[in-house]
């Protein structure tokens, strides 16, 4: 495999990875667009006074963000698994069309997973967290299904993918694999570590809230009163704080993100983005420019005359 082919394959893979990363970023930003401002209003008024419709929309978008995040993290893990462990089939599995279809499928499954909330009536205002969210005590069977299919099962899939990748990385570094195995570049390893950290943070942040829901669903009458309010509130806000952590992880572990962050910060500090040059400066520049009659060509013409 020559150098140009390696570069082309790297660009091909990078483009498809970016599709999933952008999709994950969209899922993280959904809560900041609509639900979080309503939570601030609810905190300011010490209660929900925005009506039933806004409550349902806010709860729906929160669910869209949460489930969309875990499904996108699962999609990224499968993408990394195919790229590193099945590199010979990767270009067929993740063509331009297929990658877009995978992202579209992720969001379709996300919407389908949230729709039952409207039939169960589980999107309710919770005064403990000042937001309309998934009520774990609305339906025991549905809560168990949500925890399993929207958290435990994706976590198991992602864990399997990353374990296989770690095993292959260790084997390649120890050179115990045959020559036909893919050669991992430092860039591939860094990207894998970045997404692995994103997965670990998601599991740590969302684990407590999901296990609280599972415990409440199994025995609501006995378990629910035993859970301290401070523990539930802390678990809730820790879970939704996860949406803010991904950008920090990218900035710490990804050189491209760090470079772009520096550009943004420098632009904001120098205020070049917000204070364009004044018209007086433009006029002064025009005055300082040499007159067309003073150019070399015109001088030649004048001298010739």
TrEMBL record:
Keywords from the UniProt entry: Biological rhythms, Cell membrane, Disulfide bond, G-protein coupled receptor, Membrane, Receptor, Transducer, Transmembrane, Transmembrane helix
Residues annotated as domain G-protein coupled receptors family 1 profile: 1-250
Gene Ontology cellular component list: plasma membrane
Annotated InterPro entries: GPCR_Rhodpsn, GPCR_Rhodpsn_7TM, Mel_1A/1B_rcpt, Melatonin_rcpt
Cited PANTHER family: B2 BRADYKININ RECEPTOR/ANGIOTENSIN II RECEPTOR, MELATONIN RECEPTOR TYPE 1A
Family statement: Belongs to the G-protein coupled receptor 1 family.
Name this protein carries in UniProt: Melatonin receptor type 1A-A
Species: Anabarilius grahami
The organism's taxonomic lineage, starting at the top: Eukaryota, Metazoa, Chordata, Craniata, Vertebrata
């Amino acid at each position: 495999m020559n150098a140009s082919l390696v570069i082309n394959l790297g660009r091909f893979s990078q483009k498809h990875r970016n599709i999933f990363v952008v999709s994950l970023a969209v899922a993280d930003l959904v809560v900041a667009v609509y639900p979080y401002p309503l939570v601030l209003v609810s905190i300011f008024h010490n209660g929900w006074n925005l009506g039933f419709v806004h409550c349902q929309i806010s709860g729906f978008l929160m669910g869209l963000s949460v489930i969309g995040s875990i499904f996108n993290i699962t999609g990224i893990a499968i993408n990394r698994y195919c790229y590193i462990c099945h590199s010979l089939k990767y270009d067929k599995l993740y063509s331009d069309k297929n990658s877009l279809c995978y992202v579209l499928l992720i969001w379709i499954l996300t919407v389908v997973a949230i729709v039952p909330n409207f039939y169960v009536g589980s999107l309710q205002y919770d005064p403990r967290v000042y937001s309309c969210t998934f009520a774990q005590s609305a339906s025991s069977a549905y809560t168990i299904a949500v925890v399993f299919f929207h958290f435990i099962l994706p976590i198991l899939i992602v864990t399997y993918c990353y374990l296989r990748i770690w095993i292959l990385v260790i084997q390649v570094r120890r050179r115990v694999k045959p020559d036909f195995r893919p050669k991992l570049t430092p860039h591939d390893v860094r990207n894998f570590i970045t997404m692995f950290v994103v997965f670990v943070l998601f599991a740590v942040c969302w684990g407590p809230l999901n296990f609280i829901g599972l415990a409440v669903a199994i025995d609501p009458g006995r378990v629910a009163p035993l859970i301290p309010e401070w523990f539930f509130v802390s678990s809730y806000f820790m879970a939704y704080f996860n949406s803010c952590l991904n950008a920090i992880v990218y900035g710490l572990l990804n050189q491209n993100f760090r470079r772009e962050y520096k550009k943004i910060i420098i632009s904001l500090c120098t205020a070049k983005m917000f204070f364009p040059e004044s018209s007086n400066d433009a006029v002064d520049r025009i005055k300082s420019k040499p007159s067309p009659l003073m150019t070399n060509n015109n001088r030649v013409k004048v001298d010739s005359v």
